[in-house]
Amino acid sequence: MRKNRHACVNLGFGASSLGGVFHDIREAEGIRAVHTAVDNGINFIDVSPYYGHYKAETVLGKALKEIPRDKYYLSTKVGRYGKDGVNTWDYSAKRVTDSVYESMERLNIDYIDLINVHDVEFADLNQIVNETLPALVALRDKGVVGHVGITDLQPENLKWVIEHVPAGTVESVLNFCHYSLNDEMLLDYLDFFEANGVGVVNASPFSMGLLSRRGAPAWHPAPESLKQACRRAAEHCEARNYPIEKLAVQYSTSNPRIATTLFSSANPDNVLKNIGYVNEPMDSELVKEVQEIIGDQMRVRWANT
User: Fold this and answer.
1) Within 10 A of 103 (CB to CB), how many other CB atoms are there?
2) Which end of the chain is less packed: N or C, by CB atoms within 10 Å?
């Protein structure tokens, strides 16, 4: 990387919420959320041009104008985009190369610490191996980006890509919803990632809303049986006067083999709340009780959207 900076804390800021992915936001409040995160010790920020169809990067860029560059590591992505409410995908070498420079302009930076191929399951994995990743490695060799990674919901896809590229091509993976109170699938892959020198970023400690008092949004792809189990778990935590969100964040950030866990909020108060949760001891007995309630649903598979 360009500069030597202190290591990322075990909680990272996911900027998807700045694009209104989960619900509409007030831009000024979202900018304050970014400042609140960095001012209180978070130094890893993740975003994508896909989130809000470029809106998240644009809002984040306004916040980053006011933050010294050595205060954070920045990760963004290539491959998934959108316009006028229509999602698009393009993993070609030309598009991903252009995308990197476009992201830097929106983000008001001249260097990306980590560039990820976004959700490789939407692409031909052979194209990822033979075209997309070589284009990003070329940018790494030029010093435009510091590190190259891949992201996906399904960890088996991440494993397959790593097995089919030269060593050192993929330096990190981002997997979401598979190291949380209701799903520990990521544990099955940690030995493989470590053996290949690949760092691991976990995302969505709330499992995209399943592990919250509000509950999963209507678009959530989880089956109804899992949604019901998580609702029962949330009610159990509420009865113990221990919000399930608190337990979820504590659990997802508790594994030292995972570099950082991303959460997303455009609300400064929620940012502070989650940071506070991480700094409190976790109720391990309650973890066991919640996982017993969820039970067989912990390994239920559901597809990306």
Assistant:
1) 22
2) C
66 in a domain, yes or no? yes
Q: Alpha carbon of 271 to those of 22, 61, 108: distances in Å? A: 15, 18, 23
| Enclosing H/E stretch for 235 | helix 224-239
3-state helix, strand, coil in the chain (%, to 5): 45, 15, 40
Global pTM reads 0.93
Q: What is the pLDDT of residues 19-72, one digit of tens each?
A: 976 656 789 999 999 999 999 999 999 999 999 999 999 999 999 999 999 999
Q: In whole angstroms, what is the distance from residue 75 CA to residue 268 CA?
A: 21
Report if residue 86 sits inside a domain. yes
Establish whether 51 is a catalytic residue. yes
Number of Cβ atoms within 10 Å of the Cβ of 293: 19
The CATH number linked to 72 is 3.20.20.100
Q: How far apart are CA 294 and CA 305, in angstroms?
A: 23
CB burial string 135-167: b at 16+ within 10 A, e below: bbbebbeeebbbbbbbbbbbbebbbebbeebee
Q: Which residues pair with 114 in a beta bridge?
A: 75, 147
88 - beta bridge partners? 81
For the chain, residues with pLDDT lower than 70 are 1-9, 21-24, 303-305
- Give the integer Cα–Cα distance in Å for 123 and 113: 24
Structural domain harbouring 56: 11-214+246-283
Please tell me which residue in 50, 51, 72, 81 is annotated as part of the active site: 51
Phi/psi at 89 (nearest 5 deg)? -135, 140
- Residue 195 included in any domain: yes
In a domain, 160, yes or no: yes
Structure tokens at 114: 């980590």
